[in-house]
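Hi there,

I know you've been waiting on this one. I reran it after we fixed the sequence typo, so this is the corrected version. Both the input and the resulting structure follow.
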Amino acid sequence: MKRIISVSVLIFVLICAVTGCVMNTSTDGKLYNLYFANQQKNDLVVEQRNIDERGLERTARAVIAELIKGPATGDSHGVIPPKTVLIDLDIKDSVALVNFSKDYFPENDDTKIQELLARYSVVNTLCDIEGIDKVKIFIEGTELVNSSNVPVGALGKEDIMLNSTSSESAKMVSVILYYPDKNLINLKEELRTVSMVDNSLEKTIVHELLKGPESEDLISTIPAETKVLSVETKDGICFVNLSSEFITKHGHGSTAEAFTVYSIVNSLTELATVDSVQFLVEGKKAEVIKHMLLDSPYKRNEEYIHK
């Protein structure tokens, strides 16, 4: 009897030895995509990480933990500050509810741009997990808001504008735009990440301003019929050449004209390359809109910006 048992044990051990690597594959985890910022911090790149967890929420938590750790190579940048704590993560109806500590917000001069990259990083990463379609981010229990203090809401990959692969024809950039409030009291900023137009930040900003604000609390005083003819910067002066509708369709009074001018000027002078803005209409200097002079360059005016 002992001999039979010994032979049986030996056969079992041999079977395990032969099939061990096959059996282990079921517990070795699965590769998941993690999205980090590229070297220029204007796009996202993918790094795959092996995660060995069971269950959707446990997997999502593990993936976020790896995202906070940052990339494994020096070819990309982590965009979630390493001190960030994942307080909670629940999944309801395919929406991941992610609650971070306040350390989620970086302490540097690029806070707004880095938070946007972090937001897109979290959304892309979690939405690549089967069973998660959208992500809603909270900071210590309060829903994340955008630069206009509007709740960001649930985001899916179709709701964001960054791509995981870069190309010169679709280079993504983050720009700060200024729009007036409905009462024409202050300019308020909107942070937007968009495809660059003709490889020009200046032209991209003017085109985006013409699209109007995303926030319902803001308005655009630039006539909607206005067309961008050219935008070029020389020696710190950005020459913005607009169609005649910029003047002929403007009928909102002197205050609105001032906000039209400084909406464009303050947005463009966010760029280090732009010191002032010279308006052109159909390629020529125009003296006035109706009340606001256009005959010389305008410099940035911080007094118009909401503090």
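Quick highlight: Helices lie at 2-24, 56-69, 111-127, 201-211, 245-248, 253-268.

Best,
R. S.
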